Amino acid sequence: MNNPIPYGRQHITEEDIAAVVSTLKSDYLTQGPKITEFEEAFANYVGSEYAIAVSNGTAALHLCAMALNIQPGDKVITTPITFAASANCVRYCGGEVVFADIDPDTYLLDIDNVRKLLEAEPKGTYKGIVPVDFAGRAVDLEAFKKLAEEYDLWIIEDSCHAPGGFFTDSKNQKQFCGNGNFADLAIFSFHPVKHIASGEGGMITTNDEKLYEKLLQLRTHGIVKQDNKYQNSIDFAVGSSVSSDEVENYPAWYMEMQDLGYNYRLTDFQAALGNNQLKRADEGIVKRRALASKYKNAFENKNFLKGQSGVIEGHAYHLFILEVENRFGLYNYLRENKIFAQIHYIPCHLMPYYRDLGWQEGDLPVAEQYYKNCISLPMFPTLTEDEQEFVIDKVNSFYED
Protein backbone atom coordinates (compact mmCIF):
# COMPACT_ATOMS: atom_id res chain seq x y z
CA MET A 1 0.00 0.00 0.00
CA ASN A 2 1.38 3.40 -1.01
CA ASN A 3 -1.09 5.54 0.89
CA PRO A 4 -1.23 5.54 4.69
CA ILE A 5 -4.25 3.96 6.36
CA PRO A 6 -5.42 5.84 9.47
CA TYR A 7 -7.61 4.33 12.17
CA GLY A 8 -10.39 6.77 11.24
CA ARG A 9 -11.14 9.14 8.38
CA GLN A 10 -13.89 11.56 7.42
CA HIS A 11 -15.85 11.08 4.21
CA ILE A 12 -16.64 14.38 2.47
CA THR A 13 -18.75 14.22 -0.69
CA GLU A 14 -19.50 16.80 -3.36
CA GLU A 15 -22.97 17.13 -1.83
CA ASP A 16 -21.36 17.96 1.53
CA ILE A 17 -19.22 20.63 -0.10
CA ALA A 18 -22.22 22.07 -1.94
CA ALA A 19 -24.21 22.27 1.32
CA VAL A 20 -21.40 24.19 3.03
CA VAL A 21 -20.84 26.53 0.08
CA SER A 22 -24.56 27.27 -0.13
CA THR A 23 -24.59 28.23 3.55
CA LEU A 24 -21.47 30.36 3.17
CA LYS A 25 -23.32 32.31 0.46
CA SER A 26 -26.41 32.74 2.64
CA ASP A 27 -27.28 35.52 5.08
CA TYR A 28 -26.24 33.49 8.13
CA LEU A 29 -22.91 32.01 9.09
CA THR A 30 -24.00 31.46 12.71
CA GLN A 31 -27.21 31.51 14.77
CA GLY A 32 -29.21 30.94 11.60
CA PRO A 33 -31.74 28.42 10.28
CA LYS A 34 -29.28 25.59 9.58
CA ILE A 35 -28.80 25.09 13.32
CA THR A 36 -32.48 24.40 13.94
CA GLU A 37 -32.66 22.24 10.83
CA PHE A 38 -29.79 20.08 12.05
CA GLU A 39 -31.16 19.87 15.60
CA GLU A 40 -34.59 18.76 14.44
CA ALA A 41 -33.18 16.19 12.02
CA PHE A 42 -30.84 14.77 14.66
CA ALA A 43 -33.57 14.53 17.31
CA ASN A 44 -35.68 12.64 14.79
CA TYR A 45 -32.74 10.34 13.96
CA VAL A 46 -32.12 9.22 17.54
CA GLY A 47 -35.77 9.46 18.66
CA SER A 48 -35.43 12.20 21.27
CA GLU A 49 -37.76 15.11 21.96
CA TYR A 50 -35.07 17.78 21.86
CA ALA A 51 -31.57 18.32 20.48
CA ILE A 52 -29.17 21.19 21.11
CA ALA A 53 -26.23 21.73 18.73
CA VAL A 54 -22.98 22.88 20.35
CA SER A 55 -19.38 23.57 19.41
CA ASN A 56 -17.97 20.12 20.28
CA GLY A 57 -18.54 17.03 22.40
CA THR A 58 -16.60 18.42 25.35
CA ALA A 59 -18.79 21.54 25.37
CA ALA A 60 -21.81 19.23 25.32
CA LEU A 61 -20.56 17.40 28.40
CA HIS A 62 -19.74 20.62 30.22
CA LEU A 63 -23.19 22.08 29.54
CA CYS A 64 -24.84 18.87 30.73
CA ALA A 65 -22.89 19.03 33.99
CA MET A 66 -23.94 22.66 34.44
CA ALA A 67 -27.59 22.00 33.59
CA LEU A 68 -27.68 19.21 36.18
CA ASN A 69 -26.20 21.64 38.72
CA ILE A 70 -23.08 19.72 39.69
CA GLN A 71 -21.60 21.49 42.69
CA PRO A 72 -18.12 21.40 44.26
CA GLY A 73 -17.68 18.09 46.05
CA ASP A 74 -20.52 16.28 44.25
CA LYS A 75 -19.49 12.70 43.45
CA VAL A 76 -20.14 11.32 39.97
CA ILE A 77 -19.29 7.84 38.68
CA THR A 78 -17.85 7.15 35.24
CA THR A 79 -15.60 4.72 33.36
CA PRO A 80 -11.80 5.01 33.09
CA ILE A 81 -11.84 3.74 29.49
CA THR A 82 -13.00 6.82 27.65
CA PHE A 83 -11.69 10.11 26.36
CA ALA A 84 -10.87 12.33 29.33
CA ALA A 85 -13.74 14.76 28.64
CA SER A 86 -16.25 12.24 30.01
CA ALA A 87 -14.70 12.73 33.43
CA ASN A 88 -13.37 16.27 33.05
CA CYS A 89 -16.84 17.76 32.66
CA VAL A 90 -17.47 16.92 36.33
CA ARG A 91 -14.22 18.57 37.36
CA TYR A 92 -15.08 21.73 35.39
CA CYS A 93 -17.93 22.22 37.88
CA GLY A 94 -15.83 21.31 40.91
CA GLY A 95 -17.30 17.83 41.28
CA GLU A 96 -15.41 14.71 42.31
CA VAL A 97 -14.92 11.96 39.72
CA VAL A 98 -15.14 8.38 40.98
CA PHE A 99 -14.06 5.77 38.45
CA ALA A 100 -15.60 2.29 38.41
CA ASP A 101 -14.00 -0.62 36.59
CA ILE A 102 -15.13 -2.00 33.22
CA ASP A 103 -16.74 -5.27 32.19
CA PRO A 104 -13.95 -7.32 30.50
CA ASP A 105 -16.40 -8.78 27.98
CA THR A 106 -17.87 -5.49 26.75
CA TYR A 107 -15.35 -2.81 27.79
CA LEU A 108 -18.31 -0.83 29.14
CA LEU A 109 -18.81 0.56 32.64
CA ASP A 110 -19.49 -2.48 34.85
CA ILE A 111 -22.88 -2.01 36.53
CA ASP A 112 -21.95 -4.44 39.31
CA ASN A 113 -18.95 -2.32 40.22
CA VAL A 114 -21.11 0.79 40.16
CA ARG A 115 -23.59 -0.86 42.52
CA LYS A 116 -20.80 -1.80 44.91
CA LEU A 117 -19.71 1.84 45.06
CA LEU A 118 -23.25 2.98 45.76
CA GLU A 119 -23.87 0.33 48.41
CA ALA A 120 -20.67 1.24 50.25
CA GLU A 121 -21.86 4.77 51.05
CA PRO A 122 -25.07 6.33 52.41
CA LYS A 123 -27.70 7.25 49.84
CA GLY A 124 -27.12 10.76 48.60
CA THR A 125 -23.33 10.39 48.51
CA TYR A 126 -23.37 10.17 44.71
CA LYS A 127 -25.22 12.51 42.34
CA GLY A 128 -24.96 10.86 38.96
CA ILE A 129 -23.47 8.40 36.48
CA VAL A 130 -21.78 9.03 33.13
CA PRO A 131 -21.82 5.72 31.22
CA VAL A 132 -20.06 5.69 27.84
CA ASP A 133 -21.15 3.81 24.70
CA PHE A 134 -17.51 2.92 24.19
CA ALA A 135 -16.33 1.94 20.69
CA GLY A 136 -19.96 2.12 19.51
CA ARG A 137 -21.40 -0.53 21.81
CA ALA A 138 -24.57 0.65 23.54
CA VAL A 139 -24.77 0.58 27.32
CA ASP A 140 -27.81 -1.20 28.76
CA LEU A 141 -29.36 2.02 30.03
CA GLU A 142 -32.52 0.30 31.16
CA ALA A 143 -30.49 -1.47 33.84
CA PHE A 144 -28.58 1.69 34.72
CA LYS A 145 -31.81 3.69 34.91
CA LYS A 146 -33.26 1.21 37.40
CA LEU A 147 -30.13 1.53 39.53
CA ALA A 148 -30.15 5.32 39.20
CA GLU A 149 -33.75 5.55 40.36
CA GLU A 150 -32.94 3.41 43.38
CA TYR A 151 -30.23 5.87 44.45
CA ASP A 152 -31.81 9.09 43.11
CA LEU A 153 -29.12 9.68 40.49
CA TRP A 154 -29.17 11.37 37.12
CA ILE A 155 -27.54 9.88 33.99
CA ILE A 156 -25.52 11.56 31.25
CA GLU A 157 -25.05 9.10 28.38
CA ASP A 158 -21.82 9.74 26.47
CA SER A 159 -22.77 8.52 22.99
CA CYS A 160 -19.93 10.12 21.03
CA HIS A 161 -19.02 6.72 19.60
CA ALA A 162 -22.51 5.48 18.93
CA PRO A 163 -25.02 7.47 16.84
CA GLY A 164 -27.23 4.80 15.30
CA GLY A 165 -26.28 2.24 17.95
CA PHE A 166 -28.87 0.62 20.16
CA PHE A 167 -29.51 -1.98 22.86
CA THR A 168 -32.56 -4.20 23.21
CA ASP A 169 -34.63 -3.62 26.33
CA SER A 170 -36.59 -6.07 28.50
CA LYS A 171 -39.60 -5.73 26.18
CA ASN A 172 -37.46 -6.63 23.16
CA GLN A 173 -37.63 -3.06 21.88
CA LYS A 174 -34.66 -1.33 20.25
CA GLN A 175 -33.50 1.60 22.37
CA PHE A 176 -31.31 3.88 20.29
CA CYS A 177 -28.43 5.73 21.89
CA GLY A 178 -29.47 9.21 22.92
CA ASN A 179 -33.22 8.70 22.61
CA GLY A 180 -33.84 10.11 26.09
CA ASN A 181 -35.93 7.20 27.36
CA PHE A 182 -33.48 6.32 30.12
CA ALA A 183 -30.76 8.97 30.36
CA ASP A 184 -31.55 12.52 31.47
CA LEU A 185 -29.14 13.83 28.85
CA ALA A 186 -27.01 12.31 26.09
CA ILE A 187 -24.17 13.79 24.08
CA PHE A 188 -22.62 13.23 20.67
CA SER A 189 -19.49 14.41 18.84
CA PHE A 190 -19.02 15.38 15.20
CA HIS A 191 -15.22 15.25 15.19
CA PRO A 192 -13.87 14.13 11.78
CA VAL A 193 -13.22 10.52 12.85
CA LYS A 194 -16.78 10.08 14.16
CA HIS A 195 -19.76 8.73 12.22
CA ILE A 196 -21.02 12.23 11.38
CA ALA A 197 -18.39 14.90 10.72
CA SER A 198 -18.81 18.66 10.89
CA GLY A 199 -15.15 19.54 11.48
CA GLU A 200 -15.85 20.06 15.14
CA GLY A 201 -19.27 20.00 16.74
CA GLY A 202 -21.49 18.23 19.19
CA MET A 203 -25.10 17.59 20.12
CA ILE A 204 -27.04 17.16 23.34
CA THR A 205 -30.32 15.24 23.33
CA THR A 206 -32.98 15.02 26.00
CA ASN A 207 -36.70 14.48 26.60
CA ASP A 208 -36.76 16.96 29.49
CA GLU A 209 -38.13 20.37 28.45
CA LYS A 210 -36.72 22.20 31.48
CA LEU A 211 -33.22 20.86 30.84
CA TYR A 212 -33.60 21.76 27.17
CA GLU A 213 -34.48 25.37 27.98
CA LYS A 214 -31.62 25.57 30.47
CA LEU A 215 -29.13 24.25 27.92
CA LEU A 216 -30.23 26.76 25.30
CA GLN A 217 -29.51 29.54 27.78
CA LEU A 218 -26.14 28.16 28.94
CA ARG A 219 -25.01 27.60 25.34
CA THR A 220 -25.10 31.35 24.65
CA HIS A 221 -23.53 33.16 27.61
CA GLY A 222 -26.53 32.52 29.87
CA ILE A 223 -28.51 35.06 27.83
CA VAL A 224 -32.33 35.14 27.72
CA LYS A 225 -34.31 36.89 24.96
CA GLN A 226 -37.92 36.07 25.87
CA ASP A 227 -40.21 38.75 27.28
CA ASN A 228 -41.94 36.38 29.69
CA LYS A 229 -38.63 35.38 31.28
CA TYR A 230 -37.10 38.80 31.88
CA GLN A 231 -36.34 39.80 35.46
CA ASN A 232 -35.72 43.52 35.02
CA SER A 233 -38.71 45.85 34.50
CA ILE A 234 -39.86 47.31 31.20
CA ASP A 235 -39.01 50.74 32.57
CA PHE A 236 -35.41 49.67 33.05
CA ALA A 237 -35.28 48.03 29.63
CA VAL A 238 -36.61 51.10 27.83
CA GLY A 239 -34.06 53.27 29.64
CA SER A 240 -35.77 56.63 28.99
CA SER A 241 -38.47 58.86 30.43
CA VAL A 242 -41.17 56.99 28.51
CA SER A 243 -43.75 55.68 30.96
CA SER A 244 -44.28 51.94 31.18
CA ASP A 245 -47.97 52.73 30.64
CA GLU A 246 -47.03 53.70 27.08
CA VAL A 247 -44.95 50.55 26.44
CA GLU A 248 -46.57 47.12 26.20
CA ASN A 249 -43.51 45.04 25.33
CA TYR A 250 -39.80 45.04 26.00
CA PRO A 251 -37.84 46.76 23.20
CA ALA A 252 -36.48 44.55 20.42
CA TRP A 253 -32.86 45.17 21.42
CA TYR A 254 -33.29 43.99 24.98
CA MET A 255 -31.78 40.82 26.43
CA GLU A 256 -30.60 39.63 29.85
CA MET A 257 -27.68 37.54 31.00
CA GLN A 258 -29.29 35.58 33.83
CA ASP A 259 -26.64 32.91 34.32
CA LEU A 260 -22.92 32.43 33.75
CA GLY A 261 -22.98 30.58 30.45
CA TYR A 262 -20.51 30.09 27.60
CA ASN A 263 -20.23 30.66 23.88
CA TYR A 264 -20.61 27.01 22.91
CA ARG A 265 -22.53 27.55 19.67
CA LEU A 266 -22.14 25.64 16.41
CA THR A 267 -21.88 27.62 13.17
CA ASP A 268 -24.44 27.34 10.38
CA PHE A 269 -21.93 26.02 7.85
CA GLN A 270 -20.86 23.29 10.30
CA ALA A 271 -24.53 22.44 10.85
CA ALA A 272 -25.07 22.27 7.08
CA LEU A 273 -22.19 19.79 6.78
CA GLY A 274 -23.39 17.75 9.76
CA ASN A 275 -26.96 17.64 8.50
CA ASN A 276 -25.88 16.48 5.06
CA GLN A 277 -23.72 13.77 6.63
CA LEU A 278 -26.65 12.72 8.82
CA LYS A 279 -28.62 11.85 5.69
CA ARG A 280 -26.24 8.97 4.97
CA ALA A 281 -25.52 7.97 8.58
CA ASP A 282 -27.36 4.66 8.25
CA GLU A 283 -25.34 3.82 5.16
CA GLY A 284 -22.17 4.37 7.16
CA ILE A 285 -23.38 2.09 9.97
CA VAL A 286 -24.05 -0.70 7.47
CA LYS A 287 -20.52 -0.40 6.09
CA ARG A 288 -18.94 -0.30 9.56
CA ARG A 289 -20.78 -3.48 10.56
CA ALA A 290 -19.64 -5.19 7.36
CA LEU A 291 -16.03 -4.23 8.08
CA ALA A 292 -16.38 -5.52 11.65
CA SER A 293 -17.78 -8.82 10.39
CA LYS A 294 -14.80 -9.26 8.08
CA TYR A 295 -12.34 -8.52 10.89
CA LYS A 296 -14.09 -11.04 13.11
CA ASN A 297 -13.97 -13.74 10.47
CA ALA A 298 -10.29 -13.04 9.88
CA PHE A 299 -9.32 -13.29 13.54
CA GLU A 300 -11.85 -15.79 14.89
CA ASN A 301 -9.21 -18.49 15.34
CA LYS A 302 -6.92 -16.19 17.28
CA ASN A 303 -7.28 -14.99 20.85
CA PHE A 304 -7.71 -11.35 19.79
CA LEU A 305 -11.47 -10.85 20.04
CA LYS A 306 -12.13 -10.84 23.76
CA GLY A 307 -14.59 -7.93 23.62
CA GLN A 308 -15.69 -8.42 20.01
CA SER A 309 -16.73 -12.06 19.86
CA GLY A 310 -20.20 -13.20 18.87
CA VAL A 311 -23.02 -11.22 17.30
CA ILE A 312 -23.28 -7.81 18.95
CA GLU A 313 -26.67 -6.39 18.03
CA GLY A 314 -26.82 -2.63 17.72
CA HIS A 315 -23.06 -2.00 17.77
CA ALA A 316 -22.20 1.19 15.86
CA TYR A 317 -18.50 0.23 15.46
CA HIS A 318 -16.77 3.54 15.84
CA LEU A 319 -13.78 1.37 16.79
CA PHE A 320 -12.74 -2.21 16.21
CA ILE A 321 -10.48 -3.28 19.05
CA LEU A 322 -8.19 -6.27 19.37
CA GLU A 323 -6.54 -7.43 22.58
CA VAL A 324 -3.12 -8.80 21.69
CA GLU A 325 0.18 -9.86 23.17
CA ASN A 326 3.13 -7.60 22.32
CA ARG A 327 0.84 -4.69 21.51
CA PHE A 328 3.85 -2.34 21.35
CA GLY A 329 5.53 -4.50 18.72
CA LEU A 330 2.36 -4.80 16.62
CA TYR A 331 1.72 -1.06 16.83
CA ASN A 332 5.21 -0.25 15.54
CA TYR A 333 5.08 -2.96 12.87
CA LEU A 334 1.80 -1.60 11.53
CA ARG A 335 3.21 1.94 11.46
CA GLU A 336 6.21 0.69 9.51
CA ASN A 337 3.67 -0.51 6.95
CA LYS A 338 1.78 2.82 6.97
CA ILE A 339 -1.10 1.45 9.02
CA PHE A 340 -1.78 3.98 11.74
CA ALA A 341 -3.64 2.00 14.37
CA GLN A 342 -4.49 3.76 17.62
CA ILE A 343 -4.86 2.97 21.32
CA HIS A 344 -8.22 3.67 23.00
CA TYR A 345 -7.67 4.58 25.78
CA ILE A 346 -5.01 5.20 28.36
CA PRO A 347 -7.10 4.76 31.54
CA CYS A 348 -8.25 8.17 32.72
CA HIS A 349 -7.54 7.47 36.37
CA LEU A 350 -3.83 7.01 35.57
CA MET A 351 -3.43 10.33 33.80
CA PRO A 352 -1.14 12.53 35.91
CA TYR A 353 -3.98 14.93 36.68
CA TYR A 354 -6.09 12.17 38.24
CA ARG A 355 -3.06 10.53 39.88
CA ASP A 356 -2.54 13.84 41.65
CA LEU A 357 -6.08 13.49 43.00
CA GLY A 358 -5.21 10.13 44.57
CA TRP A 359 -5.81 7.47 41.90
CA GLN A 360 -3.07 4.88 41.41
CA GLU A 361 -2.20 1.69 39.59
CA GLY A 362 -4.10 -1.28 40.93
CA ASP A 363 -7.30 0.67 41.64
CA LEU A 364 -9.08 -0.61 38.52
CA PRO A 365 -7.39 -3.85 37.46
CA VAL A 366 -9.69 -4.81 34.58
CA ALA A 367 -9.29 -1.45 32.85
CA GLU A 368 -5.55 -1.49 33.45
CA GLN A 369 -5.15 -4.98 32.01
CA TYR A 370 -7.27 -4.04 29.00
CA TYR A 371 -5.02 -1.05 28.32
CA LYS A 372 -1.90 -3.24 28.21
CA ASN A 373 -3.27 -5.21 25.24
CA CYS A 374 -5.76 -3.05 23.32
CA ILE A 375 -5.25 -1.72 19.80
CA SER A 376 -7.82 -0.16 17.43
CA LEU A 377 -7.66 -1.19 13.79
CA PRO A 378 -8.68 1.08 10.89
CA MET A 379 -12.48 1.44 10.89
CA PHE A 380 -14.26 3.92 8.61
CA PRO A 381 -16.83 3.57 5.80
CA THR A 382 -14.44 4.43 2.96
CA LEU A 383 -11.91 1.76 3.98
CA THR A 384 -11.53 -0.28 0.80
CA GLU A 385 -11.55 -4.05 0.53
CA ASP A 386 -7.90 -4.02 -0.51
CA GLU A 387 -6.96 -1.78 2.42
CA GLN A 388 -8.73 -3.99 4.93
CA GLU A 389 -7.15 -7.11 3.48
CA PHE A 390 -3.76 -5.42 3.80
CA VAL A 391 -4.42 -4.60 7.47
CA ILE A 392 -5.53 -8.17 8.19
CA ASP A 393 -2.53 -9.61 6.38
CA LYS A 394 -0.08 -7.45 8.32
CA VAL A 395 -1.63 -8.29 11.69
CA ASN A 396 -1.48 -11.99 10.87
CA SER A 397 2.05 -11.84 9.45
CA PHE A 398 3.34 -10.12 12.59
CA TYR A 399 2.21 -13.03 14.75
CA GLU A 400 3.23 -15.70 12.26
CA ASP A 401 6.81 -14.50 11.81
Describe the structure.
This protein is α/β, with parallel strands linked by helices and 401 residues long. It folds into three domains: 5-221 and 261-278, Aspartate Aminotransferase, domain 2 (3-Layer(aba) Sandwich), CATH 3.40.640; 223-257, no CATH class; 281-400, Aspartate Aminotransferase, domain 1, CATH 3.90.1150.10. The protein has 14 helices and 15 strands. Strands 2-10-9-6-5-3-4 form a seven-stranded mixed β-sheet, with helices on both faces. A hairpin with a 5-residue loop joins β7 and β8. The longest helix has 19 residues, at 281-299. It is globular. The model has no long low-confidence stretch (mean pLDDT 96).
What attributes does this structure have?
15 strands, 3 domains, 401 residues, Aspartate Aminotransferase, domain 2, 7-stranded mixed β-sheet, alpha/beta, two-stranded parallel ribbon
